Amino acid sequence: MRYRKHLALVAVAIAALLTATGCRDSRTIPMADGRPQITIMVGGLEKVIYLPAMLTQQLGFFERNDIDVKLLGEQSGATAETALLTGDVQGVVGFYDHTIDLQAKDQCIRSVVQMSDVPGEVELVSRADPDITSVADLRGRKLGVTSLGSSTDFLTQALTGQVGMSTADYTRVKVGAGQTFIAGMNHDGIDAGMTTDPTVAQMVNSGDARILVDLRTEAGTRAALGGLYPATSLYMSCATIDAHPEIVRKLAAAFVQTLQWIQTHTPEEIAAKMPPQYASAGKDLYVQSIRDSIGMFNGDGLMKPEGAQNVLDILGKYSRNVRPVRDRIDLSKTYTTQFVEEVLRAPRQ
């Protein structure tokens, strides 16, 4: 009797687990009043590199395209990709390189809107360490990354790898972004680190740090990484894309409209549309951070094939996941331009 009761309890637990898992199926998109309910995780809502996500919401372009979108902030792109794989979110605004890294793990994730051709990241050096004047001087140092396995980790390995270093030649330190990054640099937790605006503007203006490598421009990116490095994108699971092409098209339309809006407005006008708390370090500094980084956005949402190839070349050298399977990575399965091209061909409304 006790044994049968135990089996019954186990059966109930398994049923509950299957039900819960089914609710998080990435192919299932909830509807309310006939409108898709989309949850998108962003690898740092306040980061200028991911500004199009919140700006799209602030401009009302999600609503205009008949979709409801909830944005969730998460400082680590590695954590965001996990949320996508578990079906807890339907999309991620993060770095394109995660799609290649995940294919190496036999997961199909695809960029559907490619918002930038460069990382928008900066390698900052603490003002307390005047001896670091080149990437070669990072040997033996503590280098800050968002988290291990994040895009800042990949980029750090690529930068140092260009001068013959491996991860055995320095220490990677997980410092997150924003205030945790600032605290790490100001309290000797790291000697240098990879971060974005507005943190860059804040630290440089205060004199707490200086720029060693600038990946906010095409010229700086090509010089440091040997080519373009497409970064900010909307990526989704292939299963979701295949199951809901019309919803994906609406998302693409909303983001493309935002990218086009950015091209025709000033940093001051862009800043004015963003939540006021994003300018907590000062309005002028926030406008400056947008001005310094806004050129990274491509204006059309299209992937440049040469950029995708360069990302694969870099990860094929420096990612422990990609390197062993580099030759079987199919770039055509890591991004699609179909939806953006359809949006760009459609007549303006």
Automatic annotation (TrEMBL):
InterPro entries: SsuA/THI5. This is Nitrate ABC transporter substrate-binding protein. It comes from the Bacteria. It comes from Nocardia sputorum. Belongs to the bacterial solute-binding protein SsuA/TauA family. Gene3D superfamilies: Periplasmic binding protein-like II (3.40.190.10). Transmembrane segments: none annotated. Residues 1-22 form the signal peptide. Its main location: periplasm. It is found in: Periplasm. Residues 52-265 form the SsuA/THI5-like domain. Pfam families: NMT1. Keywords: Signal. PROSITE patterns: PROKAR_LIPOPROTEIN (PS51257).
